[in-house]
Amino acid sequence: MTNSSIKIKVCLGTSGRASGGEDVLNLFRQFVSEHGIEAQVGRKCELTKVGCRGFCSKDVLVDVVMNGAKTTYQSVTPIMVERIVLDHIVGGNPVAEWTTREDYTAFHAKQHKIVLGPCGEIDPDSIDDYLAMNGYKAARKAITKMMPDRVIDEIAKSGLRGRGGSGFLTGEKWRICSAQKRSPKYIICNVGEVNRPLAEGNPHAIVEGLLIGGYAIGATKGFLYIRERYHVSVERLGNALAQARERQFVGKNIFGSGFDFEIEFSFGTEAFICGEETALMESIEGRRAMPRLRPPFPAIAGLWGMPTVINNAETFSNIPIIVGKGAAWYSSIGTAESKGTKVFTLSGKVKNNGLVEIPMGMSLRDIVYGIGGGIEGDKELKAIQVGGPSGGIIPPSMIDMGLDYESLRKVGSIVGSGGMLVFDEDDCMVSVAKFFMEFLQRESCGKCTPCRIGTKRMLELLTKITGGKGEDNDLKILERLSGVMAATSICGLGRTAPNPFLTSFNHFKDEYLSHIRDKKCPAGVCTALITFSVIADKCKACGLCRRACPANAVTGAPKQVHVIDAAKCVKCGACYRVCKFNAVRKQ
Amino acid sequence: MVRRLFFSHRLARRAAVLRGSAATGRMEKVLNKILEEHVREKGNVISLLQRIQETYGHVPEESVFWFAERLDIPASRFFGVITFYPKFRTKPIGKNTLTVCCGAACHIKGGDKILETVREVLALPEGEDTTADMKFTVQQATCIGACSIAPVAIMNKQVHGSIDPVKVTKLIKDYEREESLGYL
Fold first, then answer.
1. CB contact at 8 A, A299 and A308
2. In angstroms, rounded to a whole number, what is the distance separating the alpha carbons of residues B145 and A196?
3. Cβ(A228)–Cβ(A268) below 8 Å
4. Contact A385/B at CB under 8 A
5. What ipTM was estimated for this complex?
6. Residue A389: closest CA among chain B residues belongs to which residue?
7. Angstrom distance (rounded) from CA B91 to CA B68
8. Is the pTM higher than 0.95?
């Protein structure tokens, strides 16, 4: 790597690949070699793939680093490659109209990328790239210069909490496990769907974190638990593991310290319940993923009854950073109780969808309007759901709350998997609650009664309400069921399953009531509760709606106001969509 | 459904016993190889089923009884696992797999319409996930972690982001055309 070489980095994360990133990279390669570009400019051109840098809505993103200046192009397609190479690399003039705009700068300005930092900078398949940015230094330091207890102290002092579910202090969890006398001990890294970008962008950090964790608790074996379906993640993590093994960072006598540690894959199958620690262990052991009763906690008796630590890939990605930069540095980020940063998947009706990493405590407003750039189509923000399917729904009135474990718990939500879903005025909260209940009911493992039957009954009631048959009493039953489920389910899935209903009911009570009492869906989503009609004043009798209607429910003739026959209407909304004069009313 | 499954298992079991190992005669060679690997790598029920599914595209019922006998594990344990995880299937899979993400982010961006369209385009009857000509199997996924480009569909291993009914129809039609031209 000389300073004068030109670097071209093409984003090949999940979204980059979906947008044709591989074609773009190949074309760059082909063009550069076929036209002898390196000889023309007299410099080396390094073409690499990089992981996700978060701004997925403008993929494929391509960085060109030349003379120390970095230019980022957005929405690159194969057709654009030739001009970028000729104008920019040969001619020295960046193609201004294709570079990223203010939204890209704004998207990154407020983020604090610790864990995601290297994603988008380094080639995930190259251990040398990772080593060049001090990779495996933290592991070497921990294993050769620190006693396991000191490593745990450091992690405990940093205040790092589990990034997956309940937010238990990672250092404490490790301490309990390390105090166990029995061996072998195991350490498991759960690579869930939200961790995919990490596994695809910087897989070595996960391996290194697992290595340090294994050393700290005295484990001999680590597992990478990953869904088989995530082909790219599996491939890149597998590659990282093979490279680490080759350099003897994993295996026998690591760093000449006498510490032996093996890492192997455990391929899970997709099941939401596998996010629960003990269910995941059952799955590794080859059974139905049903959570175990606790205590005993996994740190005392986990995988095959032996002391086990489970953390997710984001937690493990934080470990090398804490060991490398020190607990004091790490704990300077975040709030009093929640330290460090958290990765969120910002999606839904915001302008900038993507992967964001924010310091704990940042306000929702900064995330949605600052990083996210506001609501799509400049509509009204209706609610934000944080924490995945069982997270709570937060109304706009609370948008100034800071995000951390405590504040989210207070509003009936969780940090959970780090999903952040934004709803606008067109979304119906009752139907949203129903959607999540549908998901949770399907994913409930069926082991304990409150969750198995509770989710089913709640779903039935919510379906009844969105179907226009709701009664006042249904809400009371829903609330009671919620209480029982939260109090008596044996795992987090059942305990948090009522969250979407409870929070949406708290903050959008009117919406529930209008479904039940007025038989109306204010957002116009629940098909059983909406009717389409023509506003006579606005109708220009163009006939578009008549032709669009699949059920022949619209009658009318030229110069005659059209009419929709409610009895024939199948509520597909075709007339509403095609009308150019906003003459179709949806109620 | 449960009843039918139960009876079909019982019948299959009886058939397997009656026919002995001949019932899986053609499979035997393949299954023996899987068994060898399974023993060598000290696998468990899930990893074994994953291997079978990798080989056949689904888990043939006969293979379960074959392994149940050789490993001395009750067949019910296998079926318990198969029916728990949505990924395992006992029916043959089509040549191409189209997975539609039905996670939350995809849902609010119209993921349900995608699934509807796909099923309509492929003319799948209710309760079926594979076309009669065995060319396509339609599956649902619960969040594949590509929420920022929602809604998404995965054709075989390729992820397609920000799709809509028109795009997904075109995707299927393109595959059908390429197939008829002999490219696939």
1. yes
2. 7
3. yes
4. yes
5. 0.81
6. B104
7. 19
8. no
